[in-house]
Write a structure and sequence with these properties.
This protein has helices at residues 7-20, 39-44, 49-52, 68-78, 126-170, 174-199, 207-222, 242-262, 304-315, and strands at residues 25-29, 34-37, 84-91, 99-108, 117-124, 205-206, 229-235, 239-240, 270-279, 282-289, 319-324, 329-335, 346-348. The protein is of the alpha+beta class and 349 residues long. It has a six-stranded mixed β-sheet with strand order 7-9-10-12-11-13, covered by helices on one side. A five-stranded antiparallel β-sheet has the order 2-1-5-4-3, with helices on both faces.
Length: 349
């Protein structure tokens, strides 16, 4: 059996490893006397390598390491009752600004109580902390600016909606008045979208409260008597990205406006239902009404709303299908992961 290496040889190899480390390291006795300091430690903290060995930790430099709490934690680590993990300290050196350091210290015990050692590693995170503070400051400024922009957008949408309604009251042409009313409804729906996105801070958007608020806004602006005509929303717990929620909200707006305009003539009673279901990346959105069914003849020509829906559906890679089963119309937007999907409006009788 080979004989164990002499203790002085083991100590020499340990000292060599410490001294040559690229990390700022201190090798300490249990009473915090420096056995060895890495060249990186001496260079980083301006400690004379030749005089570091044999000195107390509190004597290094100009005494800036004499921090009572750090000393207490190191002694507790040496006794085995604690271990220092990412302990943050501020090092105040003469002639230099404060430096933010992370200290890690571990007890090295070979079974001999007289030979308990500590290995202390120090990382200077001053720059990282300064960058983090700067980033936090920039994020706060961005949040304030975004809030101001959202406030201005909301005010602008209200002004536009008011101007459209004023214009609708002044014009003589019923056709022009109808177009102005349509534009007003679209602006109001966009305002509802904007309000909800502002509350969600442009992060992921829960669809249920969003769709409910949107349809309440549409109903308030277009349904004068809610008793004969209503809008119901059934949505699961889905949460989607803000840009997807915008497209879905605008599609619902166009489909609800279309149903309210054409599905219930002569104050006909009825109901519009919005359903949304998802399964992983696959989902479907349906807008269903129990009105008179789809228009035929010249009145059935695609209008601005159809173009808007098709464009929005393509943005979110959806397929739109229309089922006309008089006296009921269902428009469904389907998204699945099958390649090559087309989003053109498809009609089935």
């Amino acid at each position: 059996m080979p004989s164990p290496a002499p203790l002085h040889m083991e100590a020499a190899s340990t000292l060599a490893v410490i001294a040559s480390s690229n990390e700022p390291l201190l090798f300490l006795t249990s009473d915090l006397q420096v056995i060895a300091a890495s060249a990186s430690f001496c260079r980083t903290f301006q400690v004379d390598p030749a005089s570091a060995s044999g000195r107390e930790l509190s004597e290094l430099g100009a005494g800036e390491w004499a921090m009572p709490k750090l000393v207490s934690l190191l002694k507790a680590t040496a006794s085995g009752s604690a271990e220092i993990e990412a302990y943050e300290i501020d090092l105040i050196s003469k002639g230099q600004g404060p430096r933010c350091l992370l200290v890690n210290a571990h007890r090295l015990d070979d079974g001999d109580r007289e030979r308990v050692r500590l290995l202390m590693a120090v990382t200077d995170v001053t720059l990282a902390r300064a960058e983090a503070r700067q980033k936090d400051g920039l994020l706060r400024e961005k949040a304030i600016l975004l809030q101001e922009v959202q406030h201005r957008v909301a005010n602008s949408l209200q002004i536009i909606a008011s101007l459209l309604m004023q214009s609708a009251r002044r014009v003589q042409s019923e056709e022009v008045r109808g177009h102005l009313h349509d534009a007003h409804h679209r602006v109001m729906s966009i305002a509802a979208v904007q309000r909800h996105l502002a509350m969600s801070s442009l992060g992921d958007v829960p669809l249920r409260p969003y769709f409910v608020q949107l349809c309440e806004s549409l109903g308030a602006s277009m349904i004068h008597d809610p008793k004969p005509l209503s809008i119901a929303v059934t949505v699961d717990e889905s949460v989607v990205a803000a840009n997807v929620s915008v497209s879905l909200g605008l599609i619902i707006t166009e489909l609800v406006i279309n149903a309210l305009k054409h599905a219930f003539p002569e104050h006909r009673h009825g109901k519009i239902t919005i359903d949304y279901l998802s399964d992983g990346q696959n989902w479907s959105l349906s807008v269903n009404d129990n009105g008179v069914g789809m228009l035929t003849g010249d009145k059935a020509k695609p209008g601005l709303g159809t173009g808007i829906i098709e464009a929005l559906a393509k943005q979110i890679q959806g397929i739109i299908r229309v089922i006309d089963s008089k006296p009921r119309t269902t428009v469904t937007l389907v998204h699945d992961e099958a390649p090559g999907n087309d989003s053109d409006l498809r009609t089935a009788a």
